[in-house]
Amino acid sequence: MNRAVSGLLIICAASLSGCTQLPSLGPDFRSPTLQLPERWANAPAAGSASAHLSDWWRQFGDAQLDALIDEALQGSLDLQLAQARLRQARALREQAIGGFFPTLSASTGASDNSPAMNSLATPTVYDAGFDASWEIDIFGGSRRALEAATAEQEASAASLDQARVSLVAEVARNYVELRSYQRRLQIAIDNLASQSETLQITDWRYQAGLAAASDVEQARTSREQTRASLPDLEVGIANAGNRLAVLLGLNPGTLRERLAAPAPLPELPDSVATGIPADVMRQRPDLIAAERKLAAETARVGQKLAQRFPSLKLGGSFGWQAYSFAALGGADTLARGASATLAATLFDGGRLRTAVEVQSAVQEQALISYRSSVLGALEEVENALKAYAAGRDRVDARRAAAVAARNAAQLARQMYQSGLADFQKVLETERTRLSTEDNLASAEAGMRLQLIALYKALGGGWALAAQRPDAGATSPAQPTAQNAS
After folding, report:
1. Is the dihedral of CA 98, 342, 25, 21 positive or negative?
2. Of the candidates 339, 327, 295, 216, which has an alpha carbon nearest to the alpha carbon of residue 484?
3. Cα(221)–Cα(198) distance, integer angstroms
4. How many CB atoms neighbour CB 420 within 10 A?
5. Which residue, 239, 226, 218, is CA-closest to 187?
6. How far is CA 86 from the centre of its chain?
7. Which of 146, 129, 102, 43 is nearest to 336 (CA)?
8. Mapping DSSP to helix (H, G, I), strand (E, B) and coil, where does residue 353 land?
9. 25 vs 27: CA distance, rounded Å
10. Which of 19, 103, 213, 358 could form a disulfide with 137 if both were Cys (CB 3.0 to 4.6 A apart)?
11. What separation in angstroms does the CA of 96 have from each of 20, 284, 359, 478?
12. For the whole model, what pTM was predicted?
């Protein structure tokens, strides 16, 4: 028995090794050749160096933002979902590897043939043994299935990285929005205090007969309009805080006390390294995932094609049969059997042929989707670069406007107190000051949001697979897919 089992294992190993060396039907995957520009059209003058994007948010120098992102990477439900999908893809790959090996089963039992009336009794027959069946992968169907499963696993790993990219960008974006709302709320409160003071001065002048009653009502109207803007800003703060909590995997409102104290917006870095367009191909995990999905669909073409060719299945049994259970295992009860079956589909109404055509169309769709994803990624980077550059000019202009508006409001107020200007001038300059200061706060936050969008478009926020503790090792039993750049 030991010799028989050993021989079976040797034959299996030799056959498996031979199968992996056979050519596989269908096209071998090769990465599509793409025409990429040599540089970004809207690249900053000092932005040609390759960017280190795995932890880009630390360039903001905001310890609280760093802590929030670290917590999100640990507690995010979106990441947990992507990790579960990766575990599923790994299990499916292991399942595909199992297709290379025979199925071995063991059984034991007893059968009692019921005799006809008035005939001699038939004794009970006992049996025990092993049965094996194995479909030889002659035309590469199992090998292509493994290639597809491996590519799907790599696509799932890239999708996990893309979830990290999106999570980091979303946390940073909501944090900047929260700080922006807090700053705008403080600007509105400061202006409310100033307008309350103006209302008081106007009321004094009215009581002294130096101002009309309409001036008092206009001052009160202006103040109440400013007060009416406060609830919207408070809602914005609450919404951003709740969103941050959910991104961290916490209940909404959990971060309210932690983020209640206003803080400055994160500092902008001195320069932004954008690299070259070719860097996006290796930096953006969504493009890596799209390329791996294309590889999987290419392998499935060969898998479908192999189903049109004959299949060879080997079978064997090894066991014992006896009329008593105690006799099992004796040399005279040994039973062996072997079989080989070559089967082919002669007619199926074209189902197998059209299955290949369907998969070829799916592969073509994956190729088009990949190329479209690349163009979309280049567009996102170009748009983000242009928006960031325009945002800097916008901030400079609005900062100058805010300074001028504050000076104008102060001069108009002094002239009104001296009787050299009417009250309408005071109201206009105060409204302009509030608007320009609010616009400046929004523009400064917008620059940070545009920089976050740029880092996301460049593919920042994840580490190389070799640097991650959850990176799965490639099985040595995996047949090598033929890839070419």
Report:
1. positive
2. 295
3. 12
4. 11
5. 226
6. 11
7. 129
8. helix
9. 7
10. 19
11. 14, 28, 19, 10
12. 0.82
The order of strands in the sheet holding 334-343 is: 103-111, 125-136, 311-322, 334-343
Exposed (0-12), middle (13-18) or buried (19+): which is 369, by Cβ within 10 Å?
Answer: middle
- Phi, then psi, of 315 in degrees rounded to 5: -140, 155
Residues in the chain: 485
Give the other-Cβ count within 10 Å of 221's Cβ: 13
User: Using CA atoms, how far apart are residues 71 and 168, in angstroms rounded to an integer?
Assistant: 10
Class of domain 2-112+126-466: mainly alpha
Strand partners, 131: 105, 317
What is d(CA 199, CA 179) in angstroms, rounded to the nearest whole number?
Answer: 30
230-245 CB burial, b ≥16 within 10 A, e <16 = eeebeebbeebbbbbb
* Contact predicate 460/286, CB 8 Å: no
DSSP-derived secondary structure for 364-431? HHHHHHHHHHHHHHHHHHHHHHHHHHHHHHHHHHHHHHHHHHHHHHHHHHHHHHTTSS-HHHHHHHHH
Distance in angstroms (rounded) separating the CA atoms of residues 81 and 203 = 62
286-322 burial by CB neighbour count: b if 16+ within 10 A, else e? Answer: bbbbbbbbbbbbbbbbbbbbbebeebeebbbbbbbeb
CB-CB neighbours of 186 under 10 Å: 13
Per-residue pLDDT of the chain (485 residues; tens, 9 = 90+): 455 444 444 455 545 555 556 778 889 999 898 888 888 888 776 544 455 688 899 999 999 999 999 999 999 999 999 999 999 999 988 888 888 888 888 877 777 765 555 555 556 777 777 788 888 888 888 899 999 999 999 999 999 999 999 999 999 999 999 999 999 999 999 889 888 888 888 888 788 887 788 888 888 988 898 899 999 999 999 999 999 999 999 999 999 999 999 999 999 988 887 888 888 888 899 999 999 999 999 999 999 998 888 888 888 787 777 766 666 766 677 777 787 888 888 888 889 899 999 999 999 999 999 999 999 999 999 999 999 999 989 999 999 999 998 898 888 888 877 777 777 788 888 888 888 999 999 999 999 999 999 999 998 888 754 444 444 433 333 333 333 32
The residue extents of the domains of the chain are 2-112+126-466
Indicate the pairing of strand 311-322 with strand 103-111: unpaired
- For 382, 385, 459, the CA distances from 379, given in Å and listed in that order, are 5, 10, 13
